[in-house]
User: Fold this.
Amino acid sequence: MIVSYFNYIKILTIILFCLPSGVYAHDHTKSFGAAGERIVVDQNSRRILVEKRFSRIISLYGAHTENLFALGLNKEIIGVSRHEVFPPEAMKKAVFSYHDDPEKFLAADPDLVLIRPMIDRGYPDLVARLEKSGITVVSLQPGTIDDLFNYWMALGILTGKQEEASEMIRGFKESISVFKSLTKTVARKKKVYFEAINSKMKTFSPDSMTIFALETAGGVNIANDAKSVRGTNIAAYGKERILSKACEIDVYLAQSGAMNRPVISLIKKEPGFKAIKAIKENKIYIIDEMIVSRPTLRLLKGIYGIGKILYPDIFSEDVLNGVQGSRFRVQGSEYR
Assistant:
């Protein structure tokens, strides 16, 4: 019985650690972010007093990398993870992995290694070795929009870019207001089922950034009664519940990424799906998870993309240009 229990714990740990990159775990009972003008608390309850801004940074998560570039920290980034895709400048940096020997990190002489909670849980020996060597390790990964703002401010404090972080937050909020205003007068808003994992009939938790993007674009989440799976941004739903709302679903959205490789023809062929209104009317669309699930400024691009699908006459190129204010832009790599 003891052996079975420990096997169960081992399996559960593996499952939690091996969640795909597009799945974000979030614990609402744990606060993180700025705890003062020069103090950051991370998601492993580390309390970091920033006496001097960190200037030799290794980022082991693509969203960290993207946000650091948005803050204007190209020179300060000395290493990135193996799966960088944006901005293009990130792919010119030295590559590091949590699978690497600690000595590789030590040889690069970083003063800060940015990770996310799954690395904290899965590679405690690496983390301990880095910290023992005097390297600051910070674990962050927001799960909700409120978390997102705390996260950006935390990065700003760590790197001495508080003003830039504040501007990111301000500009993002202003852009959100613009997007929301576009559909205020729409009498009947489109009802959407947003697929997260097709093979398991899973959608997104109602408080996820993905659903925030959908609702900001004027969409109505048909699965607003979905329950989060193990504190992640993924929610169980099931075919029976989807089909129970078949006549209401105006648009079927599916994210594409490491965790889901949707194909429109296969969605159409799914047994029972012919009853779904959106399937009948060929209102099936695929959108990149990088712009609807990642905690970066490109979430604005995702909101615009969803809006363009739902209300093409309302979401024009002029609207997109209007939300590209200050130094931060939605498209391209114009992060300075």
Q: What stands out?
A: The longest helix spans residues 162-182.
